[in-house]
Amino acid sequence: MLEVKTVGVRFDIGRIESAAYGNECWKVFWQEVEPTELKTAVLYEGDTAATLGGRENVFCIAVQRRDPGLLARLRDALSQSEAFSRTAASPPFVDGAQAWECLANAGRIEADGTLSGRDAFTARSALGTVRLKRRGAFQLPAGAAPRRRPKPASRRTANLPPLGSFEELVGYSGGLLSTQLKGPWTPGELCDVAERYAGLLTARVNEYAAAVSESIAQVSFYPAGGGSGGVEFIGMYAYGSAEDALEECRSRLGDMGRDKLLEFAREQGIEGRWQMTFERRGSGVGGIDIPPALLWAWLRGRGEVVGYPFPLEADAPAPAEAPPPAAEDRVRFRCRGCRVVLKATPRSAGKKGKCPRCGADYVVPHPQEG
Fold first, then answer.
1. Does the predicted TM-score (pTM) go above 0.70?
2. Is residue 236 part of a domain?
């Protein structure tokens, strides 16, 4: 069996022109090293023991892996980096126990090359920033046309009422988004709102890297014609892993047991490692204005770039509503995962099951709810 090797990549903090020097060091690291080159590695980060003791001023990124050539390959990769040459400490590399002494966990690289772990927040944010800079934030091509989608996206956006002002839509105390349309919102529901109230709002889109995910989609609504009082929605992003997603739920809910966490995750629109839906945040910052009619095209195109698992019917025309079930007929309802129509007998109301298409959990509604 190969011996576990640990290599420390050392940065001189005094040469880094940022108070967030850890993030800057990770950016330099990811500019030259791909996670796929470090599959199964465990990562560490932090000020060195000598730095904590006042004997140097060094931030270290340590990589631990069963790989006898690890030191040579990291040295070869980073020696090509002008940014690392400007910020490297002396010595720039160390190996063995001193490479990760006093350092904190910084995530791990899974066998598929994915960076995972709740403690990978700095490394993940930096990795996402580097990748977004390489490909550029997603933009629609010139002359882009609207894309077809099921309309309405759900029952709650099927009959949106007429509104006379932007405040009636977004107001925290009594706006439509705080009453009838409490989150989470599916991408389609967000588009229903944008298109229905296109005369009241300006839509703005953006994507950015953060500690929780390498790429988060942001949609903001602002008053048409300018003005303050915008509202932001974030969603359509991947956690490092499905377990990272559950850990995020645990941070909000507390440790209530795995079954409760899974139930809470579904309620929040989380499926596996994906945050499928949008949640409302504060006022949006940055981004590009886009016609409301093109919001779905932007969400669809950007989702395809990042691998967002759109439902199978995402670009199909909206299916006809199922007729109300007869007393002894069938209860018809839609799977919240893939939106396929499911059927059950009235006597099955309240029972749990799994969708045969996508495996999502469901509860059979009572006939009057169907």
1. yes
2. yes
Same domain for 249 and 346?
A: no
**Token pair of 183, please?**
């989150």
Q: What's the burial of 156, exposed, middle or buried (CB within 10 Å: 0-12/13-18/19+)?
A: middle
pLDDT digits (tens, 9 = 90+) for 59-105: 999 999 999 999 999 999 999 899 999 999 999 999 998 899 999 99
Are residues 221 and 108 part of one domain?
no
Q: Which two tokens stand for residue 241?
A: 């892993």
Supply the DSSP string of 303-325, one letter for each residue: HHHHT----TTTTSPPPPPPPPP
Residues contacting 251, CB < 8 A, separation 6+: none
Specify the pairing of strand 216-223 against strand 201-208. antiparallel
Two tokens at 36?
Answer: 């796929």
- For residue 205, list its beta bridge partners: 219, 288
Q: What sign for the dihedral angle of Cα 199, 201, 207, 210? A: negative
Residues 296 and 323 placed together within one structural domain of the fold: no
Domain presence at residue 141: no
Residue type, 147: R
Q: Which residue has the tokens 């950015």?
A: 208
